[in-house]
UniProtKB/TrEMBL annotation:
One of its GO terms (biological process) is phosphorelay signal transduction system. SMART domains: REC. It comes from Halonotius roseus. The keyword Transferase does not apply. The keyword Phosphoprotein applies. Residues 6-121 form the Response regulatory domain. Residues 137-150 have a biased composition (Basic and acidic residues). Residues 126-198, 230-301 are annotated as: Disordered. This is Response regulator.
Length: 481
């Protein structure tokens, strides 16, 4: 789409709608129309070309579901973002089953328009690509031929929550279930989260490293779960990782402070680290394309957190690299998508893999005909249902463990979880989930968009991962190296 997207902003408060439309128009050059109720919104949709609808859920006597019903009846592929905050969980479930493309916290707009603007541009670009893709009969899809989230879910599972191979619901993964039960409790603020009443959402990695070790272990154990032995053991192991990171950072700083002469910089000695890795870093950091950091370990069981803008062209190259599709060995790949993937990119991954399974969470995914034999899609309608995500993922790894080829997992984007879970709930889920993936021998890469999430929240999750990779204007970097 060459021109900026044309938006319809729907809000029962006309002043709020006008104010936000003015910001989106003046600061981001969108063409924005407004409506204050469902009837006015319907008229605008019928009279004008609209690329994306942004609507409050509460619209006077009506609600966003009434608007969705009209949109899906005549504009099936039109992206619709519903703005919600503190609505019951069933509202989110009903919204997605009615065809909402995304739910977005209205409170985030008060802090910054950037995440909303970026999401609008993503959705409108995807909508344009979907309209241009050939359908199964060889024709390009028109908006009337594009399928809604509800239709995709119905076609894959007969109208239920998910579709999977026989037996995929199998025995319940008790660890994942226990994790989610704790998540529900974690979403309610706790009275005592650490020995010093410190909340994990108030800490970043540096502050965690600065805590006395016993307090750090107590805090981590509180976040992970009850003060039972497994939680304490896990907390102690994580604390060792954090302490090591701090010690490494301090050693690096001391080495940099003492190593000041140019001649020393290039002369390796028995007592001082060589500067050659730094020279190598300069090469790949200044490279305009993606190159894997030289110290990144991708052995089975490794977990990587990747900080990268969703608009960065290097993101797809990074994902392909971390999935191992550029290697000669066959790969079994599990893609967990909180947003649909570009079909050309999905095809490129599938063509280089032995088999691919896509678990879509709160979105739908089209599969190109050319790779439909090797790609299986399973849908989870409710983005808050991490229990089912854990069960499906771990069962997939169990099924694949006896097969040839390595196993790789990619989750994108992780920041969507923050809309449905507290920081503590997300931390608790990932602690269990990443452990399951590592035990299954998978190389797991989780992508987070820095501009769409609170840096403090992301920093809180970093101790859970083996590596933190950042792809930004400075290049491709690995924390702690």
């Amino acid at each position: 789409m060459d021109a900026e997207p044309r938006l319809l902003y729907v809000d029962a408060d006309a002043d709020t709608a006008a104010s936000r439309a003015e910001t989106l128009s003046a600061d981001y050059e969108f063409e924005v129309r407004t409506a204050s109720d469902v009837a006015t919104a319907k008229a605008a949709l019928d009279a004008h070309d609209i690329d994306c609808v942004i609507s409050e859920f509460r619209l006077g006597d009506d609600d966003g579901l009434d608007l969705l019903s009209h949109v899906r009846s005549g504009h099936s592929s039109l992206p619709v973002i519903l703005l919600i905050d503190d609505e019951p969980e069933e509202i989110a479930r009903d919204a997605f089953s009615s065809g909402a493309t995304d739910l977005f916290p209205r409170s985030m707009i008060e802090l910054s328009y950037e995440p909303l603007v970026e999401r609008i541009r993503e959705l409108t670009a995807e909508s344009t690509e979907a309209a241009a893709e050939p359908s199964a009969d060889g024709e390009k899809q028109t908006p009337d031929k594009a399928r809604t989230t509800e239709e995709v879910a119905a076609s894959t599972d007969g109208g239920g929550t998910e579709a999977s191979t026989p037996g995929s619901s199998g025995p319940t993964d008790t660890t994942a279930t226990e994790s989610t039960a704790s998540d529900d409790a974690a979403d309610t603020p706790a009275a005592d989260k650490s020995t010093n009443d410190l909340s994990v959402s108030d800490l970043d990695l540096e502050e965690l490293q600065a805590l006395p070790k016993d307090e750090l272990i107590a805090l981590l154990a509180k976040i992970i779960g009850d003060d039972d032995e497994p939680a304490t053991e896990s907390a102690e192991a994580m604390a060792e990782t954090i302490d090591t990171s701090a010690a490494d950072s301090q050693s690096s700083a001391q080495a940099a402070a003492t190593d000041t002469t140019p001649s020393d910089t290039n002369t390796p000695t028995a007592d001082a680290p060589t500067a050659e890795p730094d020279a190598d870093d300069t090469v790949w950091e200044t490279n305009e394309g993606y190159q894997r950091p030289p110290n990144l370990d991708l052995s089975p069981g490794t977990t990587i957190l990747v900080q990268c803008s969703s608009q960065d062209a290097r993101k797809h190259d990074a994902r392909r690299d971390l999935l191992g599709v550029t290697e000669a060995d066959d790969r079994n790949i599990l893609l967990i998508q909180y947003r649909s993937m570009n079909t050309d990119r999905l095809a490129a991954i599938a063509e280089a893999a032995q088999r691919v399974k896509v678990i879509t969470v709160g979105c739908s995914q089209s599969v190109p005909t050319a790779v439909s034999d090797t790609v299986e899609v399973v849908n989870i309608n409710n983005p808050n249902d991490v229990t089912r995500l854990g069960i499906l993922s771990t069962k997939t790894l169990d099924d694949w463990r006896a097969l040839d080829g390595g196993i790789a997992v990619s989750l994108d984007p992780l920041d969507v979880l923050f809309r449905y879970k507290s920081v503590e709930g997300t931390f608790r889920f990932l602690h269990i989930f990443l452990g399951k993936l590592s035990a299954g021998g998978a190389v797991s890469s989780f992508f987070v968009n820095p501009s769409a999430s609170n840096p403090q929240d992301v920093n809180t999750l970093k101790p859970l991962f083996d590596h933190i990779m950042t792809v930004d204007a400075g290049g491709v970097d690995l924390e702690g190296t």
